[in-house]
Amino acid sequence: MSRSYGEVRALDGLDLDVGAGEIHGFVGGNGAGKTTAMRIVLGVLSADAGEVRWGGVPITTEVQRTIGYMPEERGLYPKMKVAEQLVYLARMRGLPRDRAVASVGKWLERLGVEARAGDEVQKLSLGNQQRVQLAAALVHDPAILVLDEPFSGLDPVAVDVMSEVLRDKAAEGVPVLFSSHQLDLVERLCDRVAIIKDGTVVAAGPVDDLRSGGDARLVVRVDGAPDDWASGVPGVLHQDGEALTLAPEADDQEVLRAALAAGPVREFAWRRPSLTELYRHVVSVEDAENAENAEKAENAENAEEAA
Ligand SMILES: Nc1ncnc2c1ncn2[C@@H]1O[C@H](COP(=O)(O)OP(=O)(O)OP(=O)(O)O)[C@@H](O)[C@H]1O
């Protein structure tokens, strides 16, 4: 799908699939287009081109209204009491009063904020407000979850609670799409991830597949060896502390022999790049390609002018 705000092209042919029961991470720099894409899924913003499909057919407004959504700007009424507000939201999405009250009680307890049920939202800490915001996305038992940076500002315990809730919802078959800048968390939690840049997906797939597609590095820890012990070892292209980048044809056993000659080897292991390393790589390669294309275009223009 595509979407511009005036001159700004926020989404540029973005294509994304989230399967039933899948936790899908949505990753990209500030301004990459994540919130715009989520708002289009929700139906609060329209796309200039493209469409959102649910179960293979264009999504209806009725389905969009039932999506469990956690907006980035958060959307609770500060002066309304926590439980009252959640019951109100659940009823707006069609739950009868008794079921709404029971569901609100269940989620407040699960999210560890039941003691704040009678407090005004504005009196809660930001992290607790966020737990309530998640409860607001869940109280009506939605068939789809779309969460815009649900983990930002949460303490480690709240991160664990939130992660567990998302896993449970996915296990029930709910597709879960969430954006985050916490890539270690995305790596741990997600089945699949899409990295977007300038409104386009630049890498997507199961986290393990993406990681195994990146260049593996050899981690070698040698006690007491000089920092540059690996320089000059055949096949070693680059040394970054304990991490070595090897040429494809390099023999790692030769590296091991060189390491043993430098001192006692305490660790020797191949390591796949983390999602964070992969992200940096994907984004910087994109930048380099864009710069190269811009340079080519400028050279072509100059050549044309000179002719
Ligand atoms: N209402 C708006 N009016 C004009 N431009 C907008 C509007 N909303 C977003 N944009 C622009 O669209 C682009 C995508 O923004 P968006 O908020 O979707 O990014 P994001 O990936 O969610 O970023 P962040 O990680 O910072 O939340 C940016 O260039 C942004 O400045």
From TrEMBL:
InterPro entries: AAA+_ATPase, ABC_transporter-like_ATP-bd, ABC_transporter-like_CS, ABC_transporter_ATP-binding, DrrA1/2-like_C, P-loop_NTPase. Coiled coil: none annotated. Pfam families: ABC_tran, DrrA1-3_C. Keywords: Antibiotic resistance, ATP-binding, Nucleotide-binding, Transport. Its main location: membrane. Belongs to the ABC transporter superfamily. It comes from the Bacteria. The lineage of its organism: Bacteria, Bacillati, Actinomycetota, Actinomycetes, Streptosporangiales. This is ATP-binding cassette domain-containing protein. One of its GO terms (molecular function) is ATP binding. Residues 2-223 form the ABC transporter domain. SUPFAM superfamilies: P-loop containing nucleoside triphosphate hydrolases. It is a peripheral membrane protein. PROSITE patterns: ABC_TRANSPORTER_1, ABC_TRANSPORTER_2. It is found in: Cell membrane. The keyword Transport applies.
